[in-house]
Amino acid sequence: EVQLVESGGGLVQPGGSLRLSCAASGFSFRGFSMSWVRQAPGKGLEWVAIMDEYGNGIRYVDSVKGRFTISRDNAKNSLYLLMNSLRAEDTAVYYCARPRGCSTATCPTHFDYWGQGNLVTVSA
Amino acid sequence: QSALTQPASVSGSPGQSITISCTGTSSDIGTYNYVSWYQHHPGKAPKLMIYEVRNRPSGVPDRFSGSKSGNTASLTISGLQAEDEADYYCSSYRSTSSSVTFGGGTKLTVL
């Protein structure tokens, strides 16, 4: 059974930093691209970042470029999101998700597995 | 404002059918057959219900079906059951962002 479990969220002040982790199990983690998706309170889902299975092919949504860094450790079956210079508008539940369709230019086409999410609150 | 437009809510009685629409543009739904639908019970992991417009992952009941016409995609749930009550999100690959874009979500209430 595929499982994705996020951790590391919490309350942080504006301008602060936080690192989210995602522990993967039930599949060959090193063979798949991975992604982060977030949902702000009362809003829809928003794709945040993606990385291929080799740690390359990194892309971000414009609103987090230069502030967030996605990374992975295939030996630990783990995905990470380092968030710096956090803003109130980054407040959201952050989901780890497995993207598909990433062998083509139209990557990702969808996400076939998701974690339960981890809340990040940016507030003074 | 989300890039894809969904109705905020829909409702139906057990056994009935409902359809949720998802309207985009020629940069996403109108050009690509990469429309997907997700079911989300609050506090749980979102679940993929439909991908590539009309394909169901293994384990998803055939009561769930997807379609597309022009810039609008649709999710139809037939034979509504109490456990179908959830939030539903559509998404599509979008050329202008080179990634997926999501709808704002539709709350399905089973009366």
Short description:
The complex is a heterodimer of chains A (124) and B (111). Chain A is mainly β and 124 residues long.
Structural notes for this entry:
The complex is a heterodimer of chains A (124) and B (111). With 124 residues, chain A is mainly beta. In chain A, 0% of the residues lie in helices and 50% in strands. Chain A is globular. In chain B, strands 1, 3, 4, 7, 8 and 9 form a six-stranded mixed sheet that branches. In chain B, strands 2-6-5 form a three-stranded antiparallel sheet, with no helix packed on it. Chain B is mainly beta and 111 residues long. Chain B starts with 8 loop residues before the first strand and ends with a strand. Chain B is globular, with a radius of gyration of 13 Å. Chain B is built from no helices and nine strands.
| Low-pLDDT stretches of chain B | none
Helical stretch count of chain B? 0
Structural class from helices and strands of chain B? mainly beta
Q: Indicate the radius of gyration of chain A in whole angstroms.
A: 14 Å
Put simply, the count of helices of chain A is 0
| Largest interface between protein chains, with number of residues from each side | A-B, 25 and 26 residues
Blueprint of the fold:
The complex is a heterodimer of chains A (124) and B (111).
Chain A lengths: L2 E5 L2 E3 L5 E8 L8 E6 L5 E7 L7 E2 L7 E6 L4 E6 L8 E9 L9 E5 L3 E5 L2
Parallel strand pairs in A: 2-11
Antiparallel strand pairs in A: 1-3, 3-8, 4-5, 4-9, 5-6, 7-8, 9-10, 9-11
Chain B lengths: L8 E4 L5 E6 L11 E6 L6 E4 L13 E6 L2 E6 L8 E9 L4 E4 L3 E5 L1
Parallel strand pairs in B: 1-9
Antiparallel strand pairs in B: 2-6, 3-4, 3-7, 5-6, 7-8, 7-9
Defining key terms:
heterodimer; A: 124 residues; mainly beta; 7-stranded mixed β-sheet; 0% helix; B: mainly beta; 6-stranded mixed β-sheet; 9 strands; 45% strand
